[in-house]
């Protein structure tokens, strides 16, 4: 058996080049005479790697000097809570909710701040974005939180919302590094690593300096972004292997043309897949066209029995993890940076065959 094309929503496909690099130095990394997983995070070699990974990410995303880059743990979910603890304490915060991850972010924030739903697409089943003129933003909010790419529903806010002077906080777990981005428009960008960055266990956060000075909830140091920033994200032992892999992925992105090239490739992949779905007369995607995700493409066949058959047969054909999220059903193809165009072509060709046999 060989590696299949992996359409998993996360943990997700990683660049094969990076996996091979990791394989080649799994036993002996750098000059350590040990693997990267077996050395101290405070040793020279690891610190040098950590610093290089930050420099590489800063260059890739053109991160301005007045932002810190943190390499944290806890998954994006923990930061649903930690963000309000750090920057929303005692005030209120606005949430733009366009899917299940946004809903979860609101729920986790509630114990720490008055988390207001300023806009939600719930009434439309999250198949459409709430129109801008319905957003009820409060200019005194501590921040505005949104999820530019909702991984489960496959819906995206493609333009950066203008929220005035209120810091904009974005959960970019499933679209970080997927395209060019003006970081200066954000207060915080954060992402669980396990889609476009590396293995799980790592959260990358880009946070504007002034937000580190806000009064926080009474809490232990370990939860404070300011303390992590002061200590190079090494207040405790970081997720060393995930961090190392993230560094490798940053170099891979740079080698392949940077985020602008990723964006072009991602648009080409998504356009090809949506065009086929829309023209197939067999498959459908329910998301309003202007808000379709470039990363996660949910689709279904004419009925659930065929969906089940599709998932089973596609897996056997080496097209992995196409089963849709349990709350949505059908299928979902996640086509992150590391999914080559050949994977999307193989999927479309399988879809054509399947439709011809079952239509
Ligand atoms: N936000 C988004 C947009 C996600 O796709 C996910 C799931 N991977 C999460 C948050 C939760 O991430 P984690 O499992 O790292 O807490």
Protein topology:
Elements: E1 5-6, H1 16-24, H2 44-61, E2 67-72, H3 75-87, E3 92-97, H4 100-109, E4 114-120, E5 144-146, E6 149-150, E7 155-156, E8 168-171, E9 188-192, E10 203-208, H5 225-230, H6 240-255, H7 258-280, E11 296-299, H8 304-316, E12 319-320, E13 331-334, H9 341-358
Parallel strand pairs: 1-12, 3-4, 3-5, 5-8, 8-9
Antiparallel strand pairs: 2-10, 6-7, 9-10, 11-13
Describe this structure in words.
The chain is α/β, with parallel strands linked by helices and 359 residues long. 35% of the residues lie in helices and 15% in strands. It has nine helices and 13 strands. β6 and β7 form a beta hairpin. The longest helix is centred in the last third of the chain and has 23 residues. The structure holds 4'-deoxy-4'-aminopyridoxal-5'-phosphate. The site of 4'-deoxy-4'-aminopyridoxal-5'-phosphate has 11 residues, from α3. Pathway: Cofactor biosynthesis; pyridoxine 5'-phosphate biosynthesis; pyridoxine 5'-phosphate from D-erythrose 4-phosphate: step 3/5; Amino-acid biosynthesis; L-serine biosynthesis; L-serine from 3-phospho-D-glycerate: step 2/3. Its cofactor is pyridoxal 5'-phosphate.
Question: What ligands does this structure carry?
Answer: 4'-deoxy-4'-aminopyridoxal-5'-phosphate
* H/E element sequence: EHHEHEHEEEEEEEHHHEHEEH
What's the number of structural domains? 2
CATH architecture group name of the largest domain: 3-Layer(aba) Sandwich
Roughly how many Å is the radius of gyration? 21 Å
Structural class: alpha/beta
Please list the strands of the largest sheet in the order they lie side by side: 2-10-9-8-5-3-4
Question: Biggest sheet: strands, sense, closure?
Answer: 7 strands, mixed
Helix content range: 25-40%
Keywords: Amino-acid biosynthesis, Aminotransferase, Cytoplasm, Pyridoxal phosphate, Pyridoxine biosynthesis, Serine biosynthesis, Transferase
Cofactor: pyridoxal 5'-phosphate
Family: Belongs to the class-V pyridoxal-phosphate-dependent aminotransferase family. SerC subfamily.
Function: Catalyzes the reversible conversion of 3-phosphohydroxypyruvate to phosphoserine and of 3-hydroxy-2-oxo-4-phosphonooxybutanoate to phosphohydroxythreonine.
């Amino acid at each position: 058996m060989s590696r299949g094309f992996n359409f998993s929503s996360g943990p997700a496909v990683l660049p094969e080049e990076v996996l091979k690099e990791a394989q080649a130095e799994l036993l002996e990394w750098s000059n350590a005479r040990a693997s990267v997983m077996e050395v101290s995070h405070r040793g020279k070699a690891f610190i040098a790697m950590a610093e290089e990974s930050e420099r590489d990410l800063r260059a890739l995303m053109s991160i301005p000097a007045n932002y810190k880059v943190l390499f944290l743990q806890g998954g994006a979910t923990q930061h649903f809570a930690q963000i309000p603890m750090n920057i929303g304490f005692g005030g209120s915060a606005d949430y733009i909710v366009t899917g299940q991850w946004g809903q979860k972010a609101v729920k986790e924030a509630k114990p720490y701040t008055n988390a207001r739903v300023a806009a939600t697409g719930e009434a439309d089943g999250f198949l459409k974005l709430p129109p801008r003129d319905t957003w009820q933003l409060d200019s005194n909010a501590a921040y505005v939180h949104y999820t530019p790419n909702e991984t489960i529903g496959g819906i995206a806010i493609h333009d950066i919302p203008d929220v005035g002077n209120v810091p904009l906080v974005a959960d970019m777990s499933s679209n970080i590094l997927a395209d060019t981005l003006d970081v200066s428009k954000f207060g915080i960008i954060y992402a669980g690593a396990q889609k476009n960055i590396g293995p799980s266990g790592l959260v990358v956060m880009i946070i504007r300096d002034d937000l580190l000075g806000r009064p926080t909830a009474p809490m232990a140091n370990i939860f404070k972004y300011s303390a992590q920033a002061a200590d190079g994200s090494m207040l405790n032992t970081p997720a060393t292997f995930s961090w190392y892999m993230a560094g490798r992925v940053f170099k891979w992105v740079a080698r392949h043309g940077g985020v602008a090239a990723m964006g072009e490739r991602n648009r080409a992949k998504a356009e090809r897949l949506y065009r086929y779905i829309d023209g197939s007369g067999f498959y459908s995607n329910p998301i309003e066209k202007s808000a379709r995700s470039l990363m996660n493409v949910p689709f279904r066949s004419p009925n659930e029995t065929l969906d089940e058959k599709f998932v089973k047969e596609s897996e056997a054909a080496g097209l992995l993890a196409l089963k849709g999220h349990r709350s949505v059903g059908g299928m979902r193809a996640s086509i992150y940076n590391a999914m080559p165009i050949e994977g999307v072509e193989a999927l479309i060709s399988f879809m054509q065959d399947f439709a011809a046999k079952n239509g």
